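Is this the right way to post structure tokens for a design question? Let me know if I should format differently. Anyway, here goes:
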């Protein structure tokens, strides 16, 4: 007898439900429905973004660090149709850059931006500022930045602001992003029948704990659209890797999971766009597996898995996970500006200043990262 695994079961169930669940706001099981763009004879593959019914190219454009609208425009010409930015990226300038790139093409695109949780009035004002900067009168997806624990899902001011923005047509769908405690947040959203969050942007890459993959599956089966970020596991360039190019393999690994509707790697140059675009041409194979094995070994002691296990361990309140993320931006992405901007968002208590007078570090990373050493480096680089 042929067996059917859980993942495939969800896909089969979703396929049967497609006709009804493509309607915006409809509920029910819906994993990524896949189709190829044959009209343009290009290799662009599109999947449905959960219950939103939006059709997204599996390669989305993470614009966070993009300063050249030409690269974004070229991606759009090639068939990439979803672009991710945020109110806070580059102090608001990033939305202006995206706005320039999408001029004249708005109806064919899925535009996502993010705002921080704050008072209802502040969140509405921030969303309106995003619309102005982007030069559009509606967003497709508005995310609240960086939920950390399940209590964030029910934050009344956020919920009221999102409901109001949806009601007034300023955004079509809403969701949140998460860099820590991802599995708990994905599951909590999936299990709540009242869940207003249509989309979750989550860290997901080949170094992620398998529990995150399982939670993504549960959320996708509940109709939530899943978008993956940090797909290149820090983007480190390791000399030990020689000519092996791990980043296409890392992206293919993520896109191989059909519960993920799309990934949004950063693309600063035409070369990076080309490299990522070609990923859609092939499937994840044994060579990719081998490459990622070597890449994984090379970054094992550097790469934060965003598991959140260190949260709350420091008796002085130092935010080890956030500071490790700053180090990844600096060392992996090679972007000291982004690292410094992320550091600047921390409150004074979360910074590693307390480490200076601390006799012994009691924080233990679940993956063996050298916490005390990392905190010393963070202090030297950013404080
Ligand atoms: S050294 Fe470790 S325990 Fe001490 S303050 Fe820094 S992070 Fe906290
Ligand atoms: S520093 Fe270690 S424990 Fe903390 S989130 Fe990263 S991998 Fe997990």
């Amino acid at each position: 007898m042929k067996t059917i695994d859980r993942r495939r079961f969800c896909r089969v169930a979703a396929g049967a439900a497609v006709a009804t669940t493509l309607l915006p706001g409809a509920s029910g099981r819906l994993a990524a429905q896949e189709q190829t763009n044959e009209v343009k004879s290009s290799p662009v593959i599109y999947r449905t973004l959960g219950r939103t019914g939006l059709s997204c190219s599996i390669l989305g454009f993470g614009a966070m660090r993009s300063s050249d609208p030409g690269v974004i425009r070229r991606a759009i010409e090639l068939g990439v149709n979803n672009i991710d930015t945020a109110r806070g990226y580059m102090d608001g300038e990033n939305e202006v850059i995206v706005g320039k790139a999408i001029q004249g093409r708005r109806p064919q695109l899925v535009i996502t931006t993010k705002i921080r949780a704050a008072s209802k009035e502040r969140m509405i004002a921030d969303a309106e500022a995003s619309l102005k900067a982007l030069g559009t009168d509606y967003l497709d997806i508005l995310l609240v930045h960086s939920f950390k624990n399940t209590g964030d899902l029910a934050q009344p001011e956020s919920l009221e602001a999102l409901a109001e923005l949806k009601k007034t047509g300023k955004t079509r769908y809403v969701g949140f992003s998460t860099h820590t405690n991802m599995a708990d947040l994905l599951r909590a959203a999936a299990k709540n029948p009242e869940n207003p969050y249509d989309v979750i942007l989550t860290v997901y890459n080949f170094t992620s704990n398998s529990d995150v993959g399982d939670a993504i599956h549960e959320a996708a089966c509940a109709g939530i659209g899943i978008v993956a970020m940090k797909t290149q596991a820090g983007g480190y360039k390791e000399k030990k890797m020689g000519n092996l190019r791990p980043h296409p393999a890392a992206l293919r690994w993520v896109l191989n999971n059909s519960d993920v509707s799309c990934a949004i790697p950063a693309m600063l140059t035409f070369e990076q766009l080309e490299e990522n675009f070609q990923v859609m041409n092939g499937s994840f194979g044994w060579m990719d597996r081998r490459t990622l094995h070597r890449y994984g070994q090379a970054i094992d002691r550097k790469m934060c898995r965003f598991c959140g296990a260190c949260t709350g361990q420091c008796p002085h309140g130092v935010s080890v996970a956030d500071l490790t993320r700053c180090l990844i931006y600096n060392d992996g992405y090679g972007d000291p500006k982004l690292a410094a901007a992320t550091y600047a968002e921390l409150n004074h208590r979360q910074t590693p200043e307390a480490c200076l007078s601390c006799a012994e570090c009691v924080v233990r990373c679940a993956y063996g990262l050298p916490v005390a050493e990392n905190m010393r480096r963070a202090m030297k680089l950013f404080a």
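Format looks fine. Someone answered above. Worth noting: The CA atoms of residues 64 and 85 lie 6 Å apart. Residues 1-32, 36-41 have pLDDT under 50 and may be disordered.
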